[in-house]
Design brief:
Layout (H helix, E strand, L loop, with lengths): L24 H8 L3 H6 L3 H9 L13 H4 L5 H9 L11 E6 L2 E6 L13 H20 L5 E4 L8 E6 L9 H4 L18 H6 L10 E5 L2 H20 L1 H8 L6 H7 L12 H9 L5 H16 L5 E7 L5 H20 L3 E4 L2 H12 L5 H6 L7 E9 L19
Antiparallel strand pairs: 1-2, 2-4, 3-4, 5-6, 6-8, 7-8
Helix pairs in contact: 5-6, 6-14, 9-13, 9-15
Bound molecules: flavin mononucleotide.
Protein name: Nitroreductase domain-containing protein
InterPro entries: Nitroreductase, Nitroreductase-like, TAT_signal
GO molecular function: oxidoreductase activity
Length: 407
């Protein structure tokens, strides 16, 4: 028997499998989920340690995942923050903290939580803050707090990115609010079923936001061109040692690391099949170059190969902080609307990450002109994502709790 953290002991094949079956179906199925990998565990101390270490048999467990089950229960302004922390953010950096006043919540950027050369202009960081503000507003509305957002009250580069005034109103729990705890970035394969144009249009609700616009890329020729650009950008990003290194520091490999940091990218979020996920967790943690290669491969064979459509959020002023914050609200809204309709979404921002990298290093711009050809004249790209009907459910990723990020 091998025991795993926080759960009943799980039987491991020992080579004595004949005789009357003694396992319950539930136990058997759970073990079968790891197939041959479980058999490997028997008798190998190092591997059985790794089962414990990565919680291979009990994914999404431990306090780092509690915010996903507790967000509805917390009342008042802290409850709204509990919704905010479940928002998407680049590399799951969660670049935020919140200050609660008697009738307000202030949202601050935590500049230490950046991705360096991956996001040299901090555009994605501000988009992530916009995503959090969208969840904060939905959470505030559901608690009857009538939230009103003022962006950047101290100026564009000050730490306070939003002041959210609270009042009292009727509690409104919308379908988007209900989707907060089910929204996850889905990096797995999507089905070949198209998403109807009217459904795509329904995902976009720009009310109350000015600036960003959404362009859907659905037709085969532009979709193929964008797929190629995404693969090329992934390859370029992995060839750029600084970008590769700055992204890699946000990978969390062991159960212990995940519980300690409660942020970053984890195997559970990579959209793998249960069998592959189990095996990957048993193997030693990937090196940076293996991880890069895996990502480029997945981009080519899964992400772009199975995208039903791409969405691109554009603006004429993508460098403007307020535009980035509003684009974040729009992005989070689209993702929640997709979730509520059973549509999967994966953010895919390697092209704009290369555009910003080329711009800030003085390199010849190669990705900006190629992307511009796929967009209406004058519109510049800010965010890219794919959508489709999922073949696999996405899993939650770790989060710091509302109390941890509230000052
Ligand atoms: C601005 C922004 C950029 C992102 N870029 C990417 C990306 O290029 N590729 C990707 O797979 N995920 C990307 N993500 C998704 C984050 O990695 C994800 O939100 C984070 O890991 C938390 O996981 P969750 O969305 O499932 O809660 C991005 C998210 C945001 C907000």
């Amino acid at each position: 028997m091998t025991t795993t953290h926080d759960q009943e002991p799980v039987p491991v094949a020992t080579g004595h499998l004949d005789g009357p079956p003694r396992w319950s179906r539930r136990r058997l199925l759970r073990t079968m989920g790891l197939g041959g990998a479980t058999v490997l565990v028997a008798g190998t101390g190092a591997l059985s340690y790794r089962v414990y270490d990565t919680a291979a048999l009990n994914p999404g467990s431990g306090p780092a995942f509690d915010p996903w089950t507790q967000w509805r229960q917390l009342p008042g302004p802290l409850g709204a923050v509990a919704c905010a922390v479940l928002a998407a953010s680049p590399h799951n950096t969660q670049p935020w903290y919140f200050a609660l006043g008697p009738r307000s919540i202030d949202v601050f950027v935590d500049e230490a939580r950046g991705t360096g050369a991956v996001d040299p202009l901090r555009r994605e960081q501000y988009v992530g803050l916009g995503c959090a503000v969208e969840n904060l507003v939905l959470g505030g509305m559901a608690r009857g707090l009538a939230p009103q957002v003022t962006w950047l009250p101290d100026g564009n580069e000050a730490g306070r990115v939003a002041h959210v005034e609270l009042g009292s109103g009727q509690a409104q729990a919308t379908p988007l609010y209900d989707a907060i705890g089910r929204r996850h970035t889905n990096r797995g394969p999507y089905s070949s079923q198209a998403v109807p144009a009217e459904t795509l249009a329904e995902l976009v609700d720009p009310s109350g936001l000015d600036g960003p616009t959404v362009h859907w890329v659905v037709d085969p020729a532009p979709k193929a061109a964008l797929s190629e650009l995404l693969v090329d950008a992934a390859e370029a990003l992995t060839r750029d040692q600084q970008q590769s290194r700055d992204g890699f520091v946000w990978f969390r490999n062991s159960h212990d690391e995940i519980q300690r940091h409660r942020d970053g990218l984890v195997l559970d979020g990579q959209g793998l099949s249960p069998l592959l996920l189990g095996v990957a967790k048993l193997l030693p943690a990937s090196s940076r170059s293996d991880g890069d290669q895996f990502w480029v491969n997945q981009t080519r064979t899964v992400h772009t190969a199975t995208a039903a459509a791409y969405g691109v959020i554009t603006s004429t002023s993508p460098d403007d902080r307020r535009t980035q914050l509003e684009a974040g609200r729009l992005l989070q809204r689209i993702h929640l609307a997709a979730t509520s309709r059973g549509i999967a979404l994966q953010h895919m921002n390697q092209i704009t990450e290369r555009i910003d990298r080329e711009a800030t290093t003085g390199a010849v711009a190669t990705f900006a002109p190629r992307f511009a050809k796929l967009l209406p004249a004058g519109e510049r790209p800010l965010l890219t994502y794919r959508v489709g009907y999922p073949l696999r459910e996405a899993r939650p990723t770790p989060r710091r709790s509302a109390r941890t990020v509230t000052r």
